[in-house]
Amino acid sequence: MGGQGVVPVHVQSPTDVETDEEALLWEPPWEVFPLKVFRTKDFKVVEVKREWDDEDLLIALKKTYDGLRGFRKFLGLKDVGHLTIVRADHSFIYPQRLGTPWLSPHKNMRMCYLLDNPSHLRSQRQIMTALTKRVDLGVEFVERWKTRRLLCTAGVCCSLAYILMFAWGIHTGDWATASQMGQFQLSIFALLFVAVGWSTYQDF
Q1: What is the pLDDT along the chain (204 residues), one digit of tens a residue?
Q2: Distance of alpha carbon 99 from alpha carbon 4, whole angstroms
Q3: Which end of the chain is more exposed for a tag (fewer CB within 10 A), N or C?
Q4: C-alpha to C-alpha distance for 141 and 35, rounded to whole angstroms
Q5: How far apart are CA 115 and CA 58, in angstroms?
Q6: How many CB atoms are closer than 10 A to CB 168?
Q7: What DSSP string runs through the chain?
Q8: 29 exposed, middle or buried (CB, 10 Å; 0-12, 13-18, 19+)?
Q9: Among 150, 65, 45, 46, which residue's Cα sits nearest to residue 116?
């Protein structure tokens, strides 16, 4: 990501994993680095060990993210979209993101893949280098809607509307009212999903 912060020229994003000499010559001055990991305003501190590589760091980041989500890991309709560098200053309440707010789908998918398959970066330290340059910077998990869970939820809502419609019609014989009830429920569900889609492009 472009932006000001980590180095004099730009903030190196964890999604822009490239080979550089600094990552190859890994000799940090610290033994344990306190990396703040955010999910909205909630955060935890990951104690990054000097001997870690990118695989170890990704495993720790994924574990920390799951801990910040709690039960939403299983029931939530959102999942990690990408990681971004933030200013870990609590005077902002919410972490202040650095760099461009938009990332290409390719970079989003790449980071999601790396979080699910950390062994892909075994013995490498490009992400370690990017995230441990300054103690006043942290990393935030930016979430996005889970398409599969949204589709499953939409299917369940539609099924419930039709089940209620048929149940009412069979029980009362009033199919006109049953049809109106089903259409009303489907309209409400449609409005909810439109609101979900709209909220994807809004910050709250």
Answers
A1: 444 343 333 344 554 544 555 556 788 889 999 999 999 888 999 999 999 999 999 999 999 999 998 887 777 778 887 888 888 877 777 788 886 665 666 777 788 888 889 999 998 998 998 899 888 899 999 888 777 877 888 888 888 888 988 998 888 888 888 888 888 888 888 888 777 767 665 554
A2: 7
A3: C
A4: 13
A5: 6
A6: 18
A7: ---SSSSSS-PPPTT-----HHHHS---S-SEEEEEEEETTEEEEEEEETT--HHHHHHHHHHHHHHHHTTHHHH-SEEEEEEEEEE--GGGSS-EE-S-S---HHHHHHHHHHHH-GGGGTT--HHHHHHSS-TTEEEEEEEEE-HHHHHHHHHHHHHHHHHHHHHHHHHH--HHHHHHHHHHHHHHHHHHHHHHHHHTT---
A8: exposed
A9: 65
The strand pairing partners of 140, in sequence order, are: 38, 84
* Residue 78 and residue 60 in contact, taking contact as beta carbons nearer than 8 Å: no
Residue 70: count of CB within 10 angstroms of its CB: 11
- pTM value? 0.68
d(CA 156, CA 159): 5
